[in-house]
Design brief:
six-stranded mixed sheet; Rossmann fold; 2 domains; globular; alpha/beta
Length: 275
């Protein structure tokens, strides 16, 4: 059966994503949602090299919503008229909805992370390790320290980037070169390592990796070394694809003011057996 071609006319609403390294995961999800909901809209990924280019898209009266990815989540925050409570946690946004000339920022990343955390038995967690120091890492850290009392270890290549973070007294910062000295129960990879288009490498030695009971791997990838190692060693693994799906579904609700069944979207995207 031939698939129907999307009809675009002068009433079609345009939604975009902005990133320095855009992919097609978001466009597949949102255009599928628009089709299922029979909403006259289209979603297109844009490669942006500067915040100036992002602001130009925000100001355009032809665009009704924007998904924000690296490295603009923090940079764009101060230019918005309103932000939600999750965005205020780390002064970052990943979703912008335009209502007339008013721009409203949301952070659906945290909503997605909350869904993942509900699947984890926190009675088994004493120490959480977060790899990375970007906007997503800071967002997750601020959420975790507010909700949980577990010790958190922060590890990245540049400890200076943590200087503006509000770090709890008992939490620890460790240099990237010493990462194989780290022990914990929950590992959160918020580095680009494992992402499509980024050189894949071994994050932790096998000796250290097997000490973790749970892994949340934020980069979206069909397969990477961390995923393979986690499955081989029977560590409960949550993929960037799953997180991207949950946050994208939340974005869809904000863009359309309509709710779709998640299992229906999974089937249409052939995600049914992925998570």
């Amino acid at each position: 059966m031939r698939s129907k071609i999307m009809k675009i006319d002068n009433k079609t609403k345009l939604y975009v994503s902005v990133s320095s390294n855009p992919g097609n995961t978001g466009s597949r999800l949102h255009n599928t949602c628009f089709k299922l909901l029979k909403v006259n809209a289209i979603y297109v990924p844009f490669k942006c090299n500067s915040i100036k280019e992002v602001l130009a898209l925000i100001k355009s009266d032809k665009i009704f919503g924007i998904s924000v990815s690296m490295p603009f989540k923090k940079k764009v925050y101060k230019y918005l008229n309103k932000v939600d409570k999750y965005s205020k946690l780390a002064k970052t946004v990943n979703t912008i909805v335009k209502k007339g000339k008013i721009t409203i920022g949301y952070n659906t990343d945290i909503i997605a992370i909350k869904k993942i955390l509900k699947k984890i038995n926190f009675r088994l967690i004493k120490t959480i390790v977060i790899l990375g120091n970007g906007a997503m890492a800071e967002t997750i850290y601020n959420f975790l320290k507010k909700k949980y009392k577990n010790k958190i270890i922060l590890c990245s290549r540049s400890l200076k980037k943590y200087s503006k973070w509000k770090i709890r007294k008992n939490d620890i910062k460790i240099n990237w070169k010493k990462r194989n000295n780290i022990s914990g129960n929950l590992l959160i990879n918020s580095t680009p390592i494992g992402m499509r288009g980024i050189k894949d490498e071994t994050l932790l030695s096998k000796k250290q990796l097997v000490k973790f009971k749970f892994i949340i791997d934020l980069p979206v990838s069909k397969k990477n070394k961390l995923m393979t190692s986690a499955k081989k060693n029977r560590i409960q693994y949550f993929s960037g694809k799953e997180i991207s799906f949950y946050q994208g579904v939340e974005q869809s609700k904000m863009y359309t003011n309509k709710i779709l069944n998640e299992n229906l979207i999974k089937r249409k995207l052939n995600y049914s057996n992925d998570f």
